[in-house]
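Quick one, tokens below:
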């Protein structure tokens, strides 16, 4: 299309401005495509683009050639948009080659520009520019910027010898606190905090904790602090997690003041599973108490934590969380994490699934010193505890006098954490696998084996499902994975997986009746309970009547309570349509960008904040994904041009969309036959 328009005399500058104006996913890809060193038009016009377009172009150019385009980004730090300034700062903060250019804009007349420049420079070793920065600090009239500059001048350079022992780092931190006259906030009584041991086994002075706090409390942002992390990475992880939990709970109990949101950055840096689990709980609490903004910051803190537990929670929030703002924040955080690891989001989600300390047999030993207990799990993920003699016991016993006090205490705490982790992971992975079934996700054989054979948690899932071999997206064979590591067919014959095959979850609509019934019988015979409906999944196909129609009307006329409709569709990954006059909306939609198709369920209306009323369902429409603009007081809609008739919708997508709607409408309250007249 681009080549055709250019050949017809359309100026490329005009094409760029059109893409800037519409900025849908295709326009973004077009702008990214133009960002190469030969295309001077996009470079010349980059600074004139609008917010999100400008961000897309500047990031693409920077990734193309950091050295060449860093100056362009530095100039854009004077942009009036805080969104743009923050995005650029995020890019430049990881590129030391820009520091001399950034130093130059400390002379800017704009306070916001000087502030963002100082924040970028805090990420680098600026000792060679100490004199220049001191001069800027002397002239600086804004107190906040002045403090930032003075902190660059007095920056910490933690050399190896300082980090050698608990004594050396304690002495250093005490000296730094005296020099800067820093004291922790009044609500943080540091002397009463949990002791933290250093890597040499000695307890750190409380000045070290105060020092770490100081590095995060300087600015009220949720960002990493590389200097503090040098100390943190040398400390005992369990002690840090206990300290993080103490600080986080104290802050929450004090009202979780957004003016102290830096606490989230602090606890994400020092915390382990307990901090992560508390953040997960609070995100849910805040979302229900109209504190979406601080919940989004907590999602960001989870991403900064970067642990597998944290990323699993973010992935789960991005897939099923009801609050759209928080769900979007989680999605963006997970995409950023995937980019950092150079992986797709699906591959990262696979990579971060922990084994929770279980061996390949699905066993984990908890050592009390004089006694030990083996924990294993069944197909339903219930935990079974066995003592030294092989006797099955109902609960993990409390430590007694004959046990090693320290070992027994740690083992008991680990078992408590395990139960919480197991619940989180089983819920998240059940959702992921059902979504993988819905969208026909495929794994290469080696990746499938790594995930479903080697990981004991996912191995357990794989035993309860029917798998398929796919070629060019078409199902060729089906098999079941057995507990002994072998594979068998629907006829219970041994099956061999060939190399380079692609494996996915079989959808019942792909199976002939005889094969489907055969698998059902085999699962019944062996009393295998599936982790989610697969073989018993309801299947939906286009009816003869619908083959002649543009839309699906089989649900039309159904009446349902709005809260029920909203709750169920949101949980299944649908989004609310545009809010229009009087705060009303008339659709829910779901899109699959990989196949380029969306579905829109239309209904009478619901009002934001007034959903606890009855509404009537109208048509279900399929359309080309990303062709309908959504937002507040946006009146775009599915047109005849972008409608996709039911017969042309992929069978699995069609079936899954109708499965979502049918399950949602199980809670119907009535029916009206004359719904068309009431529209």
């Amino acid at each position: 299309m681009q080549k055709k328009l250019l050949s017809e005399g359309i100026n490329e500058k005009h094409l760029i401005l059109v893409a800037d104006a519409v900025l849908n996913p295709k326009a973004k890809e077009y702008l990214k495509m133009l960002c190469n060193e030969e295309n001077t038009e996009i470079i010349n016009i980059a600074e004139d683009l609008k917010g999100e377009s400008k961000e897309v172009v500047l990031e693409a150019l920077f990734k193309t050639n950091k050295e060449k385009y860093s100056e362009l980004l530095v100039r854009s730090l004077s942009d009036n948009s805080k969104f743009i300034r923050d995005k650029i700062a995020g890019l430049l903060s990881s590129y030391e080659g820009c520091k001399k250019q950034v130093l130059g804009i400390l002379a800017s007349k704009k306070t916001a520009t000087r502030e963002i420049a100082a924040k970028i420079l805090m990420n680098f070793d600026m000792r060679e520019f100490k004199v220049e920065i001191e001069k800027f600090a002397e002239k600086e009239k804004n107190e906040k910027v002045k403090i930032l500059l003075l902190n660059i001048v007095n920056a910490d350079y933690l050399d190896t010898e300082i980090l050698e022992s608990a004594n050396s780092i304690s002495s250093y931190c005490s000296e730094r606190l005296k020099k800067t006259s820093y004291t922790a906030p009044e609500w943080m009584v540091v002397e009463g905090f949990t002791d933290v041991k250093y890597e040499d086994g000695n307890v750190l002075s409380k000045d070290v904790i105060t020092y770490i706090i100081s590095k995060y409390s300087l600015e009220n942002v949720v960002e990493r602090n590389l200097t503090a992390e040098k100390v943190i990475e040398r400390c005992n992880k369990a002690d840090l997690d206990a300290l993080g939990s103490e600080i986080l709970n104290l802050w929450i109990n004090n009202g979780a003041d957004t003016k102290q949101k830096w606490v989230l950055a602090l606890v994400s840096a020092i915390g382990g599973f307990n901090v992560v689990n508390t953040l997960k709980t609070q995100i849910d609490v805040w979302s229900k108490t109209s504190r979406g903004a601080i919940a989004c910051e907590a999602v960001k803190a989870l991403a900064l934590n970067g642990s597998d537990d944290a990323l699993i929670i973010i992935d789960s929030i991005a897939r099923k969380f009801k609050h759209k703002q928080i769900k979007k924040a989680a999605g963006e955080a997970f995409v950023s994490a995937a980019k950092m690891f150079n992986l797709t989001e699906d591959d990262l989600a696979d990579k971060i699934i922990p084994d929770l300390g279980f061996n390949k047999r699905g066993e984990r030993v908890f050592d009390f010193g004089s006694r030990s207990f083996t924990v294993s799990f069944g197909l339903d993920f219930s935990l079974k505890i066995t003592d030294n003699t092989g006797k099955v016991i109902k609960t993990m016993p409390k430590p007694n006098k004959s046990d090693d006090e320290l070992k027994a205490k740690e083992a008991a705490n680990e078992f408590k954490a395990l139960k919480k982790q197991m619940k989180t992971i089983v819920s998240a992975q059940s959702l992921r696998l059902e979504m993988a079934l819905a969208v026909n996700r495929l794994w290469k054989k080696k990746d499938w084996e790594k995930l479903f054979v080697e990981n004991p948690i996912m191995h357990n899932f794989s035993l309860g499902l029917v798998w398929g071999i796919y070629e060019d997206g078409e199902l060729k064979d089906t098999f079941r994975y057995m507990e002994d590591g072998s594979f068998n067919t629907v006829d219970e014959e041994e099956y061999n997986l060939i190399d380079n095959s692609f494996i996915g979850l079989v959808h019942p609509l792909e199976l002939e009746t005889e094969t489907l019934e055969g698998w059902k019988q085999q699962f019944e015979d062996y009393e295998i309970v599936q982790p989610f409906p697969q073989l018993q999944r309801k299947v939906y196909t286009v009816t003869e009547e619908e083959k002649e129609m543009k839309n699906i009307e089989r649900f039309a006329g159904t009446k349902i309570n709005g809260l029920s409709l909203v709750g169920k569709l949101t949980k299944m990954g649908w989004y609310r349509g545009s809010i229009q006059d009087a705060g009303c909306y008339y659709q829910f939609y779901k899109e699959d960008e990989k196949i380029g198709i969306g579905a829109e369920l239309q209904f009478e209306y619901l009002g934001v904040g007034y959903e606890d009323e009855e509404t009537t369902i109208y048509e279900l429409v399929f359309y080309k994904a990303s062709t309908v603009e959504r937002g507040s007081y946006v009146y775009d809609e599915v047109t005849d041009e972008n409608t996709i008739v039911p017969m042309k919708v992929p069978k699995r997508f069609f079936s899954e969309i109708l499965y979502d709607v049918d399950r949602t409408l199980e809670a119907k309250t009535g029916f009206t036959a004359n719904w068309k007249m009431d529209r």
